[in-house]
Design brief:
The chain has 196 residues and is an alpha/beta fold. The chain contains 9 helices and 7 strands. The protein has a 7-stranded mixed sheet with strand order 3-4-5-2-1-6-7. Strand 6, helix 8 and strand 7 form a beta-alpha-beta unit. The longest helix has 11 residues. It is globular, with a radius of gyration of 16 Å. The relative contact order is 0.18. The structure holds S-adenosyl-L-homocysteine. S-adenosyl-L-homocysteine (SAH) binds next to helix 2 and strand 2. It catalyses: S-adenosyl-L-methionine + a thiopurine = S-adenosyl-L-homocysteine + a thiopurine S-methylether. This is thiopurine S-methyltransferase.
């Protein structure tokens, strides 16, 4: 397929912050994503008490679902507003601390301890800061990454997962000449070459 029209497109961090400020967040789904329910067994693979990563997490309600099932959830999100809305909309008390390794970054942690949301760019994270994960829920993340940054994103994700991890990825299929994205159209062949 021809993805040429999207290859050069860049959405800046400032633009994402503005979307949150303007409430221009059509990607956020109050009711959560049914695909996670459908493929939960694939993610968990019979395991309990997993560490699950939400890249570009927004205020995804699925973080609460998984935490309530006894998993520990780590997310990363550039918008502090999004992170604060997540905790307040679920009535979760939290504390806020700087991340010594990343200048300007903060981590917001639920008082119960099982949800930690890093407020910084995902490209500032590494496994030495956040550890490695048993599972990943990637919805609105790879497809939100600027096309030119996909390789960098995928390499980072590969670095952040344990050997026996499960990675659920949601993509969207449409004619990339008719919509500029995000969400961007990521062809299956590209997903294969990014993640192997
Ligand atoms: N996964 C969420 C949000 C999808 S929208 C959901 O399913 O609802 C993409 C989110 O990524 C936005 O909230 C945006 O603010 C955030 N974002 C964009 N670039 C980022 C970056 N480099 N690092 C961290 N978060 C980023």
């Amino acid at each position: 397929s021809d993805v040429g029209s999207q290859k050069e497109r860049v959405v800046t961090e400032e633009e994402w912050l503005q979307k949150w400020e303007m409430g221009n967040i059509g990607f956020h789904k109050e009711e959560g994503n049914l695909l996670l329910r459908k493929y939960l067994d694939v993610l968990l693979n019979g395991r309990s008490g997993l560490r699950i990563f939400f890249p570009l997490c927004g205020k995804a309600v699925e973080m609460k679902w998984l935490a309530d099932m006894g998993h520990s959830v780590v997310g990363v999100e550039i918008s502090e507003q999004a992170v604060k809305e997540f905790f307040s909309e679920h009535n979760l008390p939290y504390c806020e601390e700087p991340v010594p390794e990343i200048s300007g970054a903060k981590v917001f942690q639920s008082t119960s301890g099982n949800i930690s949301l890093y407020c910084c760019s995902i490209y500032d994270l590494s496994s030495s800061i956040v550890g490695k994960f048993d599972g990943v829920w990637d919805r609105g993340a790879l497809v939100a990454v600027n096309p030119r940054d996909r390789q960098c994103y995928a390499s980072l994700m590969i670095n952040l997962v344990e050997k026996n991890s499960s990675y659920l990825l949601v993509t969207v299929s449409y004619d990339p000449n008719k919509h500029k994205g995000p969400p961007f159209y990521v062809p299956e062949s590209e997903i294969k070459s990014l993640f192997g």
